[in-house]
Design brief:
Keywords: Hydrolase, Protease. It comes from Brevundimonas terrae. The chain has 276 residues and is of the alpha+beta class. The protein has a single domain, classed as Beta Barrel (Thrombin, subunit H). The protein contains 5 helices and 14 strands. The strands form 2 sheets. Strands 1, 2, 3, 4, 5, 6, 7 and 8 form an 8-stranded mixed beta sheet that branches. Strands 9-10-11-14-13-12 form a 6-stranded antiparallel barrel.
Length: 276
């Protein structure tokens, strides 16, 4: 599958500066995180996680993107997947209402845009108004400098959202929140250390979920406290040894989300489809 060169892409954007008190990032990301699944027959289904990001087009017009791990789409063989919308009802109940999500053209051509080297994908979508409002601003995604700026390192805690084994937190379809500590070093430069390890129990269905820092997360003594929450990256896979999980997740840096969005913009400017 051919991809466009990434060398000419715009420089990484800064992380938006916003006081943490103005928005509860944990609740915000819970509302922006959705289950992705596809029935593949014989009572089986492929399941992953995605999250919604508001990433305006280069001309400033609004745009809603679904971010996930690229392999979540790739392992779903059919043109249409499902996305798990949730709706609040007047009595305080929530209703789970999954809807069709086209991911390929009928000839098999992907509708998503894939990073040239990393397991990251974005897909432009339309969503119910509630989810469009819930989408996370693109400026809250870490860039290549974020970890160095805040001296993130081994032992620092991050949170993750997902649907392990296709399970949700409740029948309303909300994602399950977990936490873990960064367990690898070095973390940067991101062009050399493109992923990092997070110490938590990962399962199928977690892939594509957001990994993020909020003030509730623990930091190693003496480390500076970031001025705002941020999405550190995308959960890509579980580390396995001898065919068994060893409770470690592999996280792709947030910088590669920015680069994938920039690639989408470059393809559209050149008149190309998401993939060729």
């Amino acid at each position: 599958m051919a991809v466009m060169a990434i060398d000419a892409l715009p420089p990484e954007p800064p992380v938006a500066q916003m006081p943490a008190a103005e928005w509860d990032m944990t609740l915000g990301l819970i509302n922006a995180t959705v289950q992705l699944d596809q029935n593949i027959g014989e009572g089986r289904r492929k399941v992953g996680t995605g999250f919604l990001v508001q990433a305006p087009r280069p001309d400033g017009t609004p745009r809603l993107l679904l971010v996930t791990a690229e392999h979540v789409f790739r392992v779903m063989p059919n043109p249409v997947a499902r996305i798990g919308w949730r709706f609040a009802e007047s009595d305080g109940n929530w209703r789970y209402a999954p809807a069709d999500l086209p991911i390929r053209q009928e000839d098999g051509t992907p509708l998503w845009t894939q990073h040239p080297t990393e397991d990251v994908a974005v897909l432009e979508i339309t969503a119910p108004e509630e989810f469009t409002r819930a989408a996370i601003p693109v400026g809250w995604i870490a860039n290549a400098n974020t970890f160095d700026q805040w001296r993130m390192g081994p032992g620092d805690e991050l949170f993750a959202l997902g649907y392990p084994h296709g399970l949700s937190a409740n029948r309303a379809g909300f994602p399950i929140l977990r936490s873990g500590r960064i367990s690898s070093w070095p973390l940067t430069p991101v062009q050399h250390f493109k992923t990092f390890l997070l110490d938590f129990n990962v399962s199928q269905g977690n892939s594509g979920g957001p990994v993020f820092w909020v003030p509730a997360a623990k930091r190693v003594p003496g480390a500076p406290v970031p001025t705002n929450p941020f999405i550190a990256g995308v959960l890509i896979k579980e580390v396995q040894g001898n065919g068994e999980g060893i409770e470690l997740g592999v996280v792709g840096h947030g910088q590669y989300i920015h680069e994938t969005i920039n690639l989408l913009d470059s393809q559209r400017a050149a008149g190309a489809g998401p993939q060729s």
